[in-house]
Design brief:
This protein has 353 residues and is α/β, with parallel strands linked by helices. Helices cover 40% and strands 11% of the residues. It has a single domain, classed as NADP-dependent oxidoreductase domain (TIM Barrel). α9 crosses α10 and α9 runs antiparallel to α12. The structure holds NADP nicotinamide-adenine-dinucleotide phosphate (NAP).
Length: 353
């Protein structure tokens, strides 16, 4: 087995495995024994970063991870980089929500209780909250770090100006700044490349993409004009979120999937491994957060850790999935100002067809 690559998150000394294990399925599609087998397999393959959240399975995911951490006396807690998130309601009270001091303080305390740990390595704010001043959220997070409840902080699900404001307010007030951004990012959705990814490169934040397979689409398991059914994510709920079948059943998706398939055939890897290896190698990516229902899926996807795509395969995938740049301001800035980051990301190349 090839040892899994480790990377620093941005400019920090925090090291994480290039693939991390997401636990959104735990306690929902994946029962506890299977979840523990996934964690065992991931750790044995050299994985270190485990990503959970208070909302996953309404707390069940954190409890499952916590029992796994407590279960094996030979396991060194220091071998695992533990990340969790708070911001959205995790229980029955929709008012227990937001990025304000009171909610985040209660949310982190509840997460630590469920995980059975005194602190986490990364505490993520799960999304922007326009009802709370950023300064209040940052002061709260800074307190978590001073109290040893979190080593580092990160943010998820923000736009470019929101991330910039977070960084500016943190710097202006001498507060702990996020070291990582957790956005959706995959071959089917490269929207972060217009603002967030260049910004993370500039500000030295490590990017941790969620839904690296677009919720399962990039495995090639969904078919053109055939609404899925059965025990798959979209079989169980075809209208689910950003990965909804009708949203993604487009010519663009099928062109990208054809290219992924072509590279898979050429390399002898699975389409999933190809999509994951492409993402791992994107500039700024610190760790790709895998998601799986079963150990078998996880095992197959971890083949990506040993897969090296050659230049022409990478170029094909980058070109076919290029999001294109909207005419204004992006197109104008690209044409009239000296901007090289989009060229470097392959963002501006027109999508073929
Ligand atoms: N910060 C956020 O807002 C946010 C949002 C979403 C996720 N996340 C994090 O990111 C992690 C990964 O996200 P994700 O679960 O959406 O990732 P994903 O890799 O895009 O999708 C994972 C799903 O695809 C299917 N799949 C995976 N490998 C497969 C294979 N080899 N063959 C067939 N099907 C396969 C499985 O679903 P089925 O078998 O059920 O079809 C699996 O649950 C989560 O666990 C969570 O930690 C964060």
């Amino acid at each position: 087995m090839v040892a899994m690559e480790r990377r620093h998150v941005g400019d920090t000394d925090l090291e994480v495995s290039a693939f991390s294990l997401g636990t959104m399925t735990f306690g929902v599609e994946t029962d506890e024994p299977e979840a523990h087998r996934q964690l065992d397999h991931f750790a044995a393959a050299g994985g270190t970063l485990v990503d959970t959240a208070d909302v996953y399975g309404a707390g069940a995911s954190e409890e499952i991870v916590g029992r796994w951490l407590a279960g094996d006396r030979d396991r060194d807690r220091d071998d695992i980089v533990l990340a969790t998130k708070g911001r959205f309601p995790a229980g029955n009270d929709p008012a227990a929500s937001g990025a304000g001091r009171e909610h985040l303080t209660n949310a982190l305390a509840a997460s630590l209780r469920r995980l059975g740990v005194h602190g986490v390595d990364i505490y993520f704010v799960h999304g922007w909250d326009s009802a709370v001043p950023v300064l209040e959220t940052l002061e709260t997070l800074d307190g978590f770090v001073s109290d040893g409840l979190a080593l580092h902080v990160g943010w998820s699900n923000v736009t470019g100006w929101q991330l910039q404001r977070i960084l500016r307010v943190a710097e202006a007030n001498g507060l702990t700044a996020p070291i990582t951004l957790q956005p959706q990012y995959n071959l089917l959705d490269r929207g972060i490349e217009w603002e967030l990814l260049p910004q993370c490169l500039e500000e030295r934040l490590g990017v941790m993409p969620w839904s690296p397979l677009g919720g399962g689409w990039l495995t090639g398991k969904y078919r053109r004009d055939d609404r899925p059914s059965g025990a798959t994510r979209l079989g169980e709920d075809p209208d689910r979120g950003v990965e909804a079948y009708d949203l993604r059943n487009t010519e663009r998706t099928w062109e990208i999937l054809d290219a992924v398939d072509a590279v898979a055939q050429q390399t002898g890897a699975t389409p999933a491994a190809v999509a994951l290896a492409w993402l791992r190698d994107r500039p700024g990516v610190a760790s790709v957060i895998l998601g799986a229902r079963t150990v078998a899926q996880l095992e197959g996807n971890l083949d990506a850790a040993a897969l090296v795509l050659d230049e022409s395969s990478t170029a094909l995938l980058t070109q076919v999935s290029a999001p294109g740049i909207p005419p204004y301001p992006y197109g104008f800035v690209q044409d009239h100002c000296d901007v090289s980051h989009w060229a470097r990301l392959g963002t501006a190349a027109p999508a073929p067809g």
